[in-house]
Amino acid sequence: ISEEIILDTAQVENAKTSAQRAKNQVEVTARQCYHFLLVPEAVDPRTVGFTVERVASQQGAIATSIENYLVENDLLVRTWSPVFLKNLLNQYYFKNGVYEVSLKKVWEDTCTYLYLPRLKSEDVFLAAVAAGVKDGSFGYAAGKDGEGYLGFSYREELLLVAADAGMLLLSKDKAEELHNKRLCPTCGKYP
Q1: pLDDT digits over 115-172, tens only?
Q2: Is the pLDDT of residue 106 over 90?
Q3: How far is the C-alpha of 85 from the C-alpha of 88, rounded, in Å?
Q4: How far is residue 181's CA from residue 188's CA, in Å, rounded to a whole number?
Q5: Residue 28 above 90 pLDDT?
Q6: Is residue 154 within 8 Å of 99, Cβ to Cβ?
Q7: Partners of 90 in the β-ladder
Q8: Measured between alpha carbons, how far is 148 from 178 in angstroms, rounded to an integer?
Q9: Per-chain mean pLDDT for the chain
Q10: CA separation for the pair 124, 129 (Å, rounded)
Q11: CA 38: distance to chain centroid?
Q12: Within 13 Å and on the Cβ side, how many CA atoms surround 111?
């Protein structure tokens, strides 16, 4: 048995007004509840601490307000310079004779370790990689075949869609060496 509710125009308008008022009240209440952030920080290499950050209540989506606050306070990176990525690679990965690192490992490390920058998304990371390859900060290879590199790029445009475990970032010295071998036909086989 179905029952119909018959409302006149005034009752329909009253219902719409009440629904909108309830929606507005939920948004206000949510903003009051979610205006503090717990931000993790590395106190020392073995200790994680948290700071409490208060986010000012603004119009619009709560997530957008939080993101804007994090960006304004350098707690979240929306665009990343390849210079910073190059410095990170040289500081943590390209040392003691190591000249290659998995692209995916670097991305996952930025998502895991508090002493590394907090990037908004993988797209931010990939844009920094592409810019760094183009400006010669480091090199890129789509993979490795024995001692040779597949899909080697250095000082050229690079389009990346996702970080894959087989993709490699190469130190500037290694990339220049491979680039020079590619340009010089009498230098031997291109690895």
Answers
A1: 899 999 999 999 999 999 999 999 999 999 988 899 999 999 999 888 888 999 999 9
A2: yes
A3: 5
A4: 7
A5: no
A6: no
A7: none
A8: 10
A9: 88
A10: 9
A11: 19
A12: 13
Question: Which CA distances in Å does 96 have to 57, 91, 93, 100?
Answer: 49, 11, 9, 11
Question: Any residues with CB less than 8 A from the CB of 49 and at least 6 apart, and which?
Answer: 40, 41, 42, 43
Flag whether pLDDT at 5 surpasses 80.
no
Q: Give the tens place of pLDDT for each residue, 71-93.
A: 999 899 999 999 999 999 999 99
Q: At 102, is the secondary structure helix, strand, or coil?
A: strand
Would you list the DSSP string of 35-71?
-EEEEEEEEETTEEEEEEEEPPP-SS-HHHHHHHHHH
Name the nearest CA neighbour of 103 among 22, 164, 175: 164
Q: Where do we find the tokens 């291109």?
A: 190
